[in-house]
Amino acid sequence: MNYIDIFNIKHENARVINTKGDFNRIFIIEDKNGVRYTCLKPDAKRMPKTSSHFKTLNSKLAPINYLTPYFTGKRTK
User: Which of 36, 48, 54, 72 places its Cα 20 to 30 Å from the Cα of 26?
Assistant: First the structure.
């Protein structure tokens, strides 16, 4: 399956890691290299005591080695 993580980076052929009941706003995926990424659930609830909802970040804010230690190209959306 294809998923978009919290930095708006698309991951192809990833699988969801079973965290059923562990998280209310996020889920974890794993790519073919075994690297795990955090994704935002489509129905993420409001943060407690605030009026803001969770939202994804700009891909430029991702750490340099965020994708994989072997990544050498441009980040793709």
Answer: 72
pTM of the predicted structure, to 2 decimals? 0.67
Written as one letter, the residue type at 21 is G
Please, which residues have CB within 8 angstroms of residue 1's CB and are 6 or more apart in sequence?
A: 13, 14, 15, 16
- Domain residue spans of the chain: 1-77
Whether the CB-CB separation of 28 and 46 falls below 8 Å is answered with: no
33 vs 25: CA distance, rounded Å: 25
**Does residue 38 contact residue 57 with C-beta atoms inside 8 Å?**
no
3-state helix, strand, coil in the chain (%, to 5): 5, 25, 75
Half-sphere exposure of 30 (CA within 13 A, CB side): 7
- How many residues in total does the chain contain? 77
